[in-house]
Design goal:
It comes from Dictyostelium purpureum (Slime mold). Pfam families: p450. By secondary structure, this protein is α+β, with helices and mostly antiparallel strands. It has one domain: Cytochrome P450 (Cytochrome p450), CATH 1.10.630.10. 51% of the residues lie in helices and 8% in strands. It is built from 17 helices and ten strands. It has a five-stranded mixed β-sheet. Strands 4-10-9 form a three-stranded antiparallel β-sheet. It has a two-stranded antiparallel ribbon with strand order 6-7. The longest helix has 33 residues. It starts with a helix and ends with a strand. The structure holds protoporphyrin IX containing FE. Protoporphyrin IX containing FE binds next to helix 12 and helix 17.
C-alpha cells in the first residue's frame, strides 16, 4: 500500500513538473519544480529576483511563475501594465482567491479584496461614503494630527531623546484613519497609551508580518481546504483586529443618527441600508477592516522612506526647507498668515513634491501591488491570458527600469521636475481599481512631511547614512530606525 502511495506521488510530481513547464510554453519564466513551482525562486527578496528576471523573459514585459498551483504573471514593464489595466479592466476585476484572503475578506465581501460580484457595489458605497458632505473633513483631521505629532517631536527633542520612527508614524497614521472612519482619536497616543488602539497597531503589524512571506499551503490546491480549516480553528492573524472593529460597528449602530452621519462608518451604514441592508454586517466589517489595513501601514512606510531620503541626501533637505520658507512668505503676501504649510502651498513646493514622488518610485510601499485574478480570458499583444491566472505588478522593476529612468538607483528628484513620468509611475495603481485612498494619502503625506521639515532638521544618530535595504513582503518596510532632531 505504502509503495502504491509513493508511486502515485512520484507520478503526480512528474506530471506536475511537465505540466508547469510545458503549458503556456510561449510564456517565458524560470523552470518550475513539482508542487512548489517557483515559490523557492521568489521566496527571498522577490523584488530583486523580478528585476533580474526582467532582463531574461518575454522581452522584459513579464515573467511566468508558478506559485504552487497558481500560474502568476509578474508584470515588469509599465507600458504592458497600462495596456492590460486600461484596456481590459473588466477581465481582471477580481483579487487573488486563497484561504488567507477568503477569511480576511469575509468571503471576498471587502473592498480591497472584493471579487467581481461585490466590487462594483462596494466601490459605489465607499465612494459615496468618502465624499459624504456631512461627515468631518479629512483635512482638518490631518492638520490636527500633524500639530500633535510635531508637538511630540518637540518634546522628544527638548528631553534629549532620539525620535523613533516606526511606532510614532504608525500612531500618527492610525489616529487619522481611526478618526475619519470611526470618530476615534486618542489624544495622548504618542505617550504610549495602553489603549485598545495600541492593540490595533500590534494586530496590523502582526498581519503584515504574516503576509510578508509566501505560504506554500495558500497556493497548493490540495492543501487549501486544510489550511482554510486550520485558520478557522486555530485563528487567523486578523481575527483580533476584526473583533475590535466589530465592537465599533455595533456601537455605531446603536448611536447612529441617519440624518447626521459622523464618519465613514456611519456613511457606509446609511448607504448600505439604501439597498435594504442585505449582508450589511459582514460587508461593512470587511470594508472597515481593509480601510484600516490599507491606510495605516502604507502611509507610515512612505513617511519612513521619505525621512531616510532626506537624511541620506541632506542637500535636498536644506533646499526643501528654503522652498517651504519661500512658500510661506509668498502666501503671507496674499492672505494666509499662518506659519504652517497647508495644501494650498502645494503648487509652490515643486522640489518637495518631486522628492516625495522620487521616494515612492525607489521604494513603492506596496512593491507588487495588490494582485488580481483573471476572471475572463483575454488576449494582449499576442498572449492569451487564461481565466484563473494571477497578475502581480512588479512596481520595483517598473520604477527602476533604465528605459524610463536614467540612473534608476539614484535619488534624483529633478527627474520629476523635468518630466511627469505619468505613463510609467503609478505607485497607487491605475484604472478603475486603483487605490481609493490616493488623494487622502497624498494630502496626509504632504501636510505631515512638509511641516516636519519646516520645524526640524533630521539626521541619523551616528551621522552615517541610514540603511536602505528594504524588507520585501506585501509592504516594503525599511529596518526600524531612530533619528536625531534639531530645531530649524
Ligand atoms: C502610500 C500610501 C498608499 C499606497 C502606495 C497605496 C497603494 C495601493 C495599491 C497599489 C492598490 C491596488 C491597486 C490595483 O489593484 O490596481 C491600492 C488599493 C486600495 N487602496 Fe491604497 N494605497 C495607499 C494608501 C491608502 C489609504 C490611505 C487608503 C484608505 C484609507 C487606501 C485604500 C485603498 C483601497 C480601498 C483600495 C482598493 C481599491 C479597489 O480594489 O477598488 N489606500 N492601494
Amino acid at each position: 500500500m505504502f509503495q502504491v502511495l509513493i508511486f502515485v506521488f512520484l507520478f503526480y510530481c512528474i506530471f506536475d513538473f511537465l505540466y508547469k513547464n510545458i503549458a503556456y510554453r510561449k510564456w517565458e519564466g524560470p523552470w518550475a519544480v513539482p508542487l512548489l513551482g517557483n515559490l523557492l525562486h521568489v521566496s527571498k527578496d522577490a523584488h530583486l529576483v523580478f528585476s533580474k528576471d526582467q532582463k531574461k523573459f518575454n522581452g522584459g514585459k513579464f515573467g511566468k511563475y508558478w506559485f504552487g498551483d497558481s500560474m502568476v504573471m509578474a508584470i515588469f514593464d509599465a507600458n504592458f501594465m497600462r495596456e492590460i489595466y486600461l484596456k481590459h479592466p473588466e477581465s481582471i476585476n477580481t483579487r487573488l482567491k486563497s484561504p488567507i484572503t477568503s477569511i480576511l475578506s469575509e468571503k471576498y465581501r471587502g473592498i480591497v479584496t472584493a471579487d467581481e460580484n461585490y466590487w462594483a457595489f462596494h466601490h459605489e458605497i465607499l465612494s459615496k461614503s468618502f465624499s459624504g458632505k456631512k461627515i468631518k473633513s479629512i483635512i482638518s483631521s490631518i492638520e490636527k494630527e500633524t500639530d500633535s505629532l510635531i508637538g511630540h517631536m518637540k518634546f522628544i527633542l527638548k528631553s534629549g531623546q532620539n525620535f523613533e520612527t516606526r511606532n510614532n508614524l504608525m500612531n500618527f497614521n492610525s489616529n487619522i484613519v481611526f478618526d475619519y472612519v470611526f470618530s476615534r482619536r486618542i489624544e495622548n497616543i504618542y505617550e504610549g497609551s495602553s489603549s485598545e488602539q495600541s492593540q490595533v497597531l500590534i494586530e496590523i503589524r502582526k498581519l503584515f508580518d504574516f503576509l510578508a512571506h509566501f505560504k506554500v499551503q495558500n497556493f497548493i490546491k490540495i492543501l487549501k481546504p486544510f489550511y482554510y480549516l486550520y485558520l478557522k480553528i486555530f485563528g487567523h492573524p486578523n481575527d483580533n483586529l476584526k473583533k475590535i472593529l466589530f465592537k465599533y460597528y455595533l456601537e455605531h449602530c446603536e448611536t447612529i443618527n441617519l440624518d447626521s452621519p459622523r464618519d465613514v462608518l456611519d456613511s457606509m451604514v446609511i448607504e448600505y441600508r439604501k439597498f435594504g441592508g442585505k449582508e450589511e454586517e459582514k460587508s461593512i466589517l470587511a470594508m472597515s477592516n481593509e480601510l484600516i489595513l490599507a491606510g495605516v501601514e502604507t502611509n507610515s512606510i512612505a513617511m519612513e522612506w521619505f525621512i531616510i531620503q532626506m537624511i541620506n541626501n541632506h542637500k535636498y533637505q536644506d533646499k526643501i526647507y528654503n522652498e517651504l520658507l519661500e512658500a510661506l512668505k509668498s502666501n503671507k503676501l496674499t492672505s494666509n498668515s499662518s506659519n504652517k504649510i497647508k495644501l494650498s502651498h502645494r503648487p509652490l513646493t515643486p522640489l518637495f513634491n518631486a522628492s516625495l514622488r522620487e521616494t515612492m518610485r525607489m521604494y513603492p510601499p506596496i512593491p507588487y501591488g495588490v494582485g488580481r485574478e483573471v476572471n475572463e480570458e483575454f488576449e494582449i499583444e499576442g498572449y492569451k491570458i487564461p481565466k484563473g491566472a494571477h497578475i502581480l505588478q512588479s512596481y520595483y522593476s517598473m520604477f527602476r527600469d533604465e528605459n524610463h529612468y536614467n540612473e534608476p538607483n539614484e535619488f534624483k528628484p529633478e527627474r520629476f521636475l523635468l518630466e511627469s513620468h505619468s505613463n510609467n509611475y503609478f505607485p497607487y495603481g491605475i484604472g478603475v481599481r486603483a487605490c481609493m485612498g490616493m488623494s487622502m494619502s497624498q494630502d496626509e503625506l504632504y501636510i505631515s512631511l512638509t511641516n516636519i521639515l519646516l520645524n526640524f532638521k533630521v539626521s541619523s544618530i551616528d551621522d552615517k547614512p541610514i540603511n536602505e535595504k528594504p524588507n520585501f513582503g506585501f509592504s516594503f518596510r525599511p529596518n526600524e530606525y531612530s533619528i536625531k532632531l534639531d530645531f530649524r
